[in-house]
Amino acid sequence: MHGMEQTWRWYGPDDPVTLADIRQAGATGIVSALHQIPIGEVWPLEAILERKRLIEMDDIVSPPRPRGLTWSVIESVPVHEDIKMGLPSRDRYIENYRQTLRNAGRAGVHCVCYNFMPVLDWTRTDLQFELEDGARALRYDAHEFAAFDLFILMRPGARQDYTPEQIEVARNRFEAMTPAKKARLQETIIAGLPGGQQGYTLAEFQAKLDAYRNVTEEKFRENLAYFLRAIVPAAEEAGVRMAIHPDDPPTPLFGVPRIVSTEEDLRYILGVHDSIANGFTLCTGSLGVRADNDLVGIVQRHGRRLNFAHLRSTERDGSGSFFEAAHLEGNVDMFGVMREILKEQRRREWAGRRDIVIPMRADHGHTMLDDLRKKTNPGYSAIGLLRGMAELRGLERGILRSESFGAE
Ligand code: DNO
Q1: Which pLDDT value is given to residue 198?
Q2: Contact 254, 209 (CB under 8 A)
Q3: Residues of the chain with pLDDT under 70
Q4: Which pLDDT score is estimated for 407?
Q5: pLDDT tens, position by position, 344-355
Q6: pLDDT tens-digit profile of 288-326?
Q7: Which of 4, 41, 261, 362 suits a disulfide with 388, CB 3.0-4.6 Å?
Q8: 204 C-alpha vs ligand 1 centroid, how far in Å?
Q9: Inter-residue contact 277 to 240 (CB < 8 Å)
Q10: pLDDT of residue 191
Q11: How far apart are CA 373 and CA 134, in angstroms?
Q12: Any ligand 1 atom below 6 A from CB of 312
């Protein structure tokens, strides 16, 4: 019986966490991206091969030695905004995307994670939320978010998106904030999080939102379908499995649509082109923010197309806010999800599929212990991820060895 492939996100040579650290954490797969390539440009084959060599071979020693790591997943090849907005220029960017997929396949990297969120990638309001035990977690506070939208960005039309009570709470929050707190909130929301889009100023950000004025939810969905119809055949030919990442958080922000938030959304996306190459990333932390997302059911019903897993948990407070809980705590039924993924792997084995083993990574750890005093990428400090990975690994082993799992 197979366990999942344990991977770890590595931001590249500038990541404070080294490949040697990752190896000691017990991961065998690396998740990485060529962040230096401008969004929309082709990733040259040589550049992919160079990164792959860097990941997989230790060239400092003589003779060079394999590190015991494989570049398993690209996260992400970002989708150009013109594609998302459906502008005429999209075809050029789509052609570039297809070429990047061909190059990835040729280089031997067979899974590509991407998202289809407008303007922003993932969004939080606090990167230093102090937990009871003194560790720090990432948090999304819906009221602070509204305070930013209404009173800092002052987005035209924003008031329509909130109830009078929400506006009142947001105003009180805003008025209680020091200038430093306001600046930090703005920076956290639009200055860019690791692996996401570049940062924006307020004016740039508003201009980006304005550009979406005519993109209705329906139109946005069509733009995604148009993109998929063009790239999935290229992915199939290249032997690459696409894995769309859910919206984080899974709800519309700033009055622009989000269309990868629910099982219904996933069903639509997977239906556009029925192929294993058109799959998804199960991000339990993103999808799990909505109580109406049945994570175990999603794996049961769509597991065939589950190409990558981000395992983490969030804890909701009932008002639209949440923080990132320890991996086995919070609202996500991690035991149920893990067991269902392992069952999916078994189904694949029986079905004779070659891609039995699904890559997973412990997503977003707490900042804790020594890492509290170091410069780290929020959510991606080594010790917190190590804790998460260790817990998930233990959970997995326990399930695989339990008699009941064997008998199911
Ligand atoms: C955050 C990540 C996201 C993710 C992209 C996928 O930690 O999960 O930035 O990489 O949304 O395209």
Answers
A1: 74
A2: yes
A3: 194, 196-197
A4: 78
A5: 999 999 999 999
A6: 999 999 999 999 999 999 999 999 999 999 999 999 999
A7: 362
A8: 22
A9: yes
A10: 83
A11: 13
A12: no
CA pair distance 307, 111, nearest whole angstrom: 7
Spacing, Cα 368 to ligand 1 middle (Å)? 22
For residue 343, the model assigns a pLDDT of 97
**Structural domains of the chain, ranges and CATH numbers in brackets:** 5-123+216-407 (3.20.20.150), 126-207 (no CATH)
In this structure, are residues 314 and 288 in contact, taking their beta carbons and an 8 Å threshold?
yes
Residue located nearest, by CA, to atom 3 of ligand 1: 122
Q: d(Cα 75, Cα 309) in Å, to the nearest integer? A: 12
Please state whether the peptide bond connecting residue 76 to the residue before it is cis, i.e. omega within 30 degrees of 0: yes
What's the token pair of residue 274? Answer: 């029925």
pLDDT at 92: 98
32, β-bridge pairs: 74
5-24 confidence digits (pLDDT tens):
999 999 999 999 999 999 99
Give the pLDDT score at 8.
98
For residue 378, give the nearest of 19, 126, 113, 29 by alpha carbon: 126
Question: Is residue 195 in contact with ligand 1, taking CB distance under 6 Å?
Answer: yes
- One-letter amino acid at 294 equals D
284 CB under 6 A from ligand 1? no
